[in-house]
Amino acid sequence: MRAAAFEQPGGPEVLKVMEVPAPEAGPGQVRIAVRAAGVQPFDLAVRAGWIPQGVEPRAVTIPGNEFAGVIDQIGAGVTDFATGDEVLGFGRLDAYAEYLVIPADQITAKPPSMSWEVAGAFSASAQTAHIAHGELRPAQGETFLVQGAAGGVGTVAVQLAVQTGAVVIGTARPENHDYVRSLGATPVEYGEGLVERVKQLAPQGVDSALDCAGGAALETSLALVADRSRILTLVEHGRAEELGIRVTPATRSAARLAELVKLHEQGRLRIHIRSTYPLAGAADAHRELETGHGRGKIAITLP
User: Fold this and answer.
1) First CA to last CA across the chain, in angstroms?
2) Does domain 125-243 have CATH number 2.40.30.100?
3) Are 61 and 71 in contact (CB under 8 A)?
4) CA separation (Å) from 168 to 80, 142, 159, 180?
5) Does the structural domain 2-122+271-301 have CATH classification 3.90.180.10?
6) To bridge 144 with a disulfide, which of 62, 119, 138, 270 should be the other Cys (CB 3.0-4.6 Å)?
């Protein structure tokens, strides 16, 4: 099969289309003919040399931790799915490929109303935002600050919080303000003076904050939210314990994903795909993601 992979870590240029052995489904697994895969910051870290916990070093590494496709092989003991089923799911690696083998408890059915691009780029951001929402619990009437509101996780976090009745303020570049506003949040520009701008929008204070950007964004959240247990960072994991703030626990599941897919099917959760690339364009997809501050998600698509 073809896969976008690398032999040595480095910049985007190390990602090449290679011919590698196609995997076979083992007990409790399914093999999926991949139609689309999302491009995540997680993938950039893998390409740069980070090895996720529980993953053995490999001679050839295929990034990609969210995907959608059609089941073409069923392993022993799998009874909830059949060949030909359209599904989406999550893993850690291997989604930038024509075929992917994954445990059957890490996928859920793809509804016909969901495009392949959206399905392939759905799981990671949607589940991360949903987990963060459960940790922070922005409630009706509270003010919730989302740092990086136009990005993949921010897009979902804003929508979930708005549906609980929270007042949402979202930081974003000026060119993304209309987009953030369309999600239901009040946009505010990054940069110097951010604390004062947020205070003008929320003179009663900010109750909780989700940091999708790190650095100065986290410092702003620390200055605005009195209760540090109601700040969650997706970026500054190394500082979380000393600061007394939260990170997302590892609680992704097929049940959680199915709940989020249902919200999308009901029209209550929308995902913006800003760019798509073929498998041969994986390096360019990484280059675009590394520019930062983009709107929505990037997907790699396969015929």
Assistant:
1) 13
2) no
3) no
4) 39, 8, 9, 10
5) yes
6) 138
How do beta strands 66-74 and 29-39 pair?
A: antiparallel
- Reported as a single tens digit per residue, the pLDDT across 64-97 is 999 999 999 999 999 999 999 999 999 999 999 9
Return the closest-CA partner of residue 169 out of 220, 118, 243.
220
Burial class (CB in 10 A: 0-12, 13-18, 19+), 53: exposed
CA distance linking residue 15 with residue 7, whole number of Å: 8
Q: Which amino acid is at 218?
A: L
Q: Which tens digits make up the pLDDT trace of 245-277? A: 999 999 999 999 999 999 999 999 999 999 999
Q: Would you say the CATH fold of 125-243 matches that of 2-122+271-301?
A: no
Q: Is 12 helix (H, G, I), strand (E, B) or coil?
A: helix
Does residue 285 contact residue 298 with C-beta atoms inside 8 Å?
yes
DSSP letter string, 144-199:
EEEETTTBHHHHHHHHHHHHTT-EEEEEE-GGGHHHHHHHTPEEEE-STTHHHHHH
Q: Where are the domains of the chain?
A: 2-122+271-301, 125-243
